[in-house]
Design a protein that fits this description.
Length: about 130
């Protein structure tokens, strides 16, 4: 029986050429997907500051959960009052430490407590905060 005639060099060349074309197409597709991903991430990052509502003056007289978490240890009392939309109530003062109470929105009583100390810059800074909410 006669064996079929094969052209190995040509078949091998065609196979390699097909692999190269597939790889080039695959890489172009990956590059397009990476570009789309990069643009999506850039747009998402750019949109974050636009979508965040200002924490101040939206709920005067009380503290929301978002406002509570928007202030941090070391913030000045002025910043805390600006973000929380209220000056709160003076609770006590002892040995350079001031404690103030604030109302949580839609909850009875004074439920947020903050303690401040006066630093070398002669301003009151937040030492700790605590919320008593159910």
């Amino acid at each position: 029986m006669a064996r079929p005639v094969t052209h190995e060099p040509e078949n091998g060349y065609v196979h390699r050429l097909a692999r190269l074309k597939f790889a080039r197409h695959h890489n172009q597709r990956e590059n397009t997907m990476l570009k789309r991903l990069a643009v999506s991430v850039a747009l998402a990052v750019a949109a974050v500051p636009l979508s965040v509502a200002p924490a101040s003056a939206d709920t005067p007289g009380c503290v929301t959960r978002a406002e509570f978490y928007a202030v941090h240890k070391g913030d000045t009392m002025a910043r805390v009052h600006r973000v929380w939309d209220t000056d709160g109530r003076f609770r006590f003062f002892s040995q350079g430490v001031m404690n103030r109470g604030y109302k949580i929105c839609n909850v009875q009583g004074t439920n947020v407590f903050a303690e401040y100390t006066k630093r070398a810059d002669d301003r009151w800074h937040l030492v700790w905060k605590k919320a008593n909410a159910q």
